[in-house]
Amino acid sequence: MILGLFTRVAAISGAILLFIYYLNSAPMIGLEYSVPAEGSYLVISKTLIESVALVALAVFPSGSFAGLDMLVSGFKNSHN
User: Which run of H or of E encompasses 78?
Assistant: First the structure.
């Protein structure tokens, strides 16, 4: 994701990984003996928000504007 190469695959993989992290330690109401969190979340935590943001990056062609995906797509289009 940092280099901008294979952004769609990296975003989907990251979203799945963050969603698994969210399921591992989901914020539950009234659960007092869990691992301490960084605030008072009801249902949505920052991990879930980051996962949704990565899904948005995967849906839109953000890699074609900047990064190595732009160069790869330009190289692929010039050879066709």
Answer: helix 68-78
Number of H helices, E strands in the chain: 3, 0
- 3 and 67 Cβ atoms separated by less than 8 Å: yes
Q: Please write the tens of the pLDDT for every residue from 37-75.
A: 566 667 788 888 999 999 999 998 877 777 788 787 766
Q: 32-35: which pairs have CB atoms within 8 A and are 24 or more residues apart?
A: none
Alpha-carbon torsion (69, 71, 76, 80), positive or negative: positive
Reported pTM: 0.74
